[in-house]
Specification:
Number of domains: 2
Distance between the termini: 16 Å
Radius of gyration: 20 Å
Number of helices: 9
CATH topology of the largest domain: Beta-Lactamase
Largest sheet: 6 strands, antiparallel
Number of strands: 8
Low-confidence stretches: none
Shape: globular
Helix content: 40-55%
Order of helices and strands: HHHEEHHEEEHHHEEEH
Strand order of the largest sheet: 5-4-3-8-7-6
Mean pLDDT: 88
């Protein structure tokens, strides 16, 4: 999980135009599927001239469709995410075991990795019922400090990496249950590290309760986390631990056997 330190935006090696183009791609989401040049410029906080050059370049490369004044992402952008998923060893195996957990519990089961302040979903078996107010799919990013997968990964980071995360992350009250004090979060992470599982109860979205475990390679290198997400009215925390924790542990162990 340890990564080299990132260069700063004022480094001579930092390519501002590349960063700008990527920020334009990321401006599109489920609530902004089609935008004008002005709308893109406003969302990315750049001037219209820059937005125009970025959009027309992306259009020339095939990553953006243009129809009169409207711009939208093209299917070619999927190739960017597909390249990452193809690089994830045994992705199909992970998906198989997540689906088995869903069959056993009737609940959604996911696999995510830490990326900056967020966890990014790279595999998911969705239950029929929807839990979050937002739709979860491959590539969805959620704040690590307020998700069970994020916390179980953070708890197992080297001390210097965890300290850097805590220094830089913002504490947000997503619900009345959200932890907003970094000292309290640090204590919670210490408990998670000791027990090697995390339960997050309605801190990101009211009614959402989830359980997560770390996933390791056979050499004990942390590669990510898996979770089961449930409705707090339907599954108690005690049932989550007593009934679902053993199934999730079996899933993590099965995935680990493929990472030699």
């Amino acid at each position: 999980m340890t990564q080299d330190k990132k260069i700063s935006s004022d480094s001579p090696d930092f390519v501002a135009s590349l960063a700008g183009g990527l920020s334009v791609l990321l401006a599109f989401d489920e609530n902004h599927t089609s935008m004008t040049l002005s709308e893109v410029a406003e969302r990315v906080n750049i001037d219209r001239a820059k937005a125009r050059r970025y959009l027309l370049t992306l259009h020339a490369l095939g990553y953006v469709h243009k129809s009169k004044r409207q711009f939208k992402l093209s299917p070619k952008t999927l190739s960017l995410g597909a390249s990452y998923l193809n690089s994830v060893h045994h992705h199909d195996i992970i998906q198989f075991y997540l689906e088995r957990v869903t069959e056993q519990t009737g609940e959604s089961c996911s696999f995510a990795v830490l990326d900056g302040d967020d966890v990014t979903y790279i595999a998911r078996s969705a239950a029929q019922h929807r839990l979050l107010s937002i739709a979860i799919a491959i590539g969805t990013r959620l704040p690590a400090a307020y998700t069970s997968m994020g916390r179980v990964i953070l708890a197992n980071l080297p001390e210097d990496e965890l300290a850097e995360f805590l220094d830089n992350t913002d504490m947000v009250a997503y619900t009345p249950h959200s932890i907003t004090d970094k000292t309290v979060l640090k204590e919670a992470l210490a408990n998670i590290k000791a027990q090697q599982y995390a339960v997050v109860d309605q801190e990101l979205d009211s009614g959402l309760r989830s359980l997560a475990l770390p996933v390791y390679k056979s050499n004990n290198e942390l590669i990510g986390a898996i979770n089961i997400s449930t409705n707090a009215m339907r599954v108690s925390e005690a049932d989550l631990i007593e009934q679902f924790l053993p199934l999730l542990k079996e899933c993590a162990d099965n995935i680990q056997t493929y990472y030699i």
